[in-house]
Amino acid sequence: SGLGPANWQWHSYVQASQQLRLQEHYLSGYTSNNYVASFVDVASGGYGALPEWKLLWGLGSQYKNWRIDFMGQYISALTEPVPQLQQLRQIPSWHIMNLQLRWENLFDHIDIELAVDNIFNKAPPFSASAANYNFDNRSFDVTGRYYRIGLQVHF
């Protein structure tokens, strides 16, 4: 009995994706470009952010009706063309962490959740070529740190 480690159930997950190649060919004999690990804004005819790596991970534990989860998201660094300078610029990698606490089966039919997403309030990396938002809104979230409280009732 008690809160010792033997009484907790632990769980973890990792989901990773690697993009190896995205090439386009227009006409035979012309050069083709590999766009992986690059950013070219959709508004200027590009594909947006195409990071080589995207990673989601989580570690959590459960003790009786209590559950805690610590989760993270990682997007690898990108290279972008700087508008009007004919130069390339490095966009740094981005990593955020989230924390969630749940009290499950309260009175046999209610779950309560408290959560903090983007714990350290990390802004998405700046992109000089992003025409609309100064970052790629399809890959990065500009919301910043936010808190959630949830109540779920099971009938």
Give a verbal description of the structure:
This protein has 155 residues and is mostly beta strands. The protein has no helices and twelve strands. Strands 1-6-7-10-11-12 form a six-stranded antiparallel β-sheet, with no helix packed on it. The two termini are 32 Å apart. The relative contact order is 0.18.
What secondary-structure arrangement, pairings included, does this model have?
Blueprint: E1 9-18, E2 23-24, E3 33-34, E4 38-40, E5 48-50, E6 53-63, E7 66-75, E8 78-82, E9 87-91, E10 94-106, E11 110-117, E12 146-153
Antiparallel strand pairs: 1-6, 2-3, 4-5, 6-7, 7-10, 8-9, 10-11, 11-12
**Radius of gyration, in angstroms, nearest whole number:** 21 Å
Largest sheet: 6 strands, antiparallel
Mean pLDDT across the residues is: 80
**How many individual β-strands?**
12
Oligomer: single chain
Overall 3D geometry?
elongated
Q: Which key features would you list for this structure?
A:
52% strand, 155 residues, mainly beta, 12 strands, six-stranded antiparallel beta sheet, two-stranded antiparallel ribbon, single chain, 0% helix
At a glance:
0% of the residues lie in helices and 52% in strands.
